[in-house]
Amino acid sequence: MNRSILSRPSQTSVDRALLEKIDSTIRSTSLSQEFVEQWYPTLIDRNGLDTAGYRQAFPHLLCDVSTDGKPGSWCLSPAVCYHTFLSLRGASLPTGTKITARNHCYRNEQSVAPGRRQIEFEMRELVVVGPEPWVEGELLSWERQIGVIADRFDIAATWQAAADPFFLPASRGKALMQRLLRTKQEYCLSDGLAIASINRHRDYFAKRFSIQTTNDQPVHSACIAFGLDRWVWAATH
Amino acid sequence: MNTSEEFLERFLAFLNDLLPDLRGKPNPGERIAPDSKLFENGTLDSLSILHVLAFIERQIGAAVPDDLIIPENFRSPRAIAETFGRLRR
After folding, report:
1. Mind listing the pLDDT tens digit for each residue in A177-194?
2. What domains lie within chain A, and their CATH numbers?
3. Closest chain B residue to the Cα of A169, Cα to Cα
4. How many CB atoms lie within 10 A of CB A179?
5. Contact assignment for A180 to B49 by CB distance below 8 Å
């Protein structure tokens, strides 16, 4: 496939309505559970993304924005939650924090398939930041709720242990640790396509972005990600 | 001594005596025992898990099957020995 033609397939109004309906279900469920909604920009600070370690882990996926033909200060957001951690940098949180946000995301995928793997796609993410037991409670609750939402759209999927597609051979250990610590779980269709994921960051981002709690408890974080284009594909195939 | 027990003995010697040199720092905490939790307190990290995998592959004489890389099989030295000891050639 020539990926220079479209970074994302054009959508009919029917596809678009379905995507909005799916997102509305996830969004309203999160808002009913005291998630606070945020709207983030498309561009993300290059240095901030480097602090998060994205470039080191996934150099092959990052879309830099060039200015005057040279890499500039900005990248296209590869995921939603990095904006959350940049906005919480240096924060001292009194209790657990819950953010819900949707954005366009961009990854320089070498192989694309419309609806399933695209350069440009939309993602709804739920980010939870707080003490570990509280984070785990939220994740357990959402693991069940995602199944209920999928049922509503006649999507059959199962939770599986997973690992990120790290690029460097030296990162194989990271991928293994993800599997063995169950830091990444994916909600997969029968053909293996992941439509949602739960990502436990443990204290990684809290340390990198100096996020603390007012009572000095260790801060953990996690995100629950929904690939909205993939949900549409799953609901229509 | 059955194959799992032999594997466990070799594996504990590897973890306690060889792994610290391979990763260039001592193991945290006390000597690793058969039922020690390997992922708590940083006993295994993203570098040392590669050494552990290489050890297992040397012992069984083959690549570790992907479907066996799950938390339950790696939670302790005993779990690893029981999973992979029976695969030894």
Report:
1. 888 888 889 999 999 999
2. 3-236 (3.30.930.10)
3. B50
4. 18
5. yes
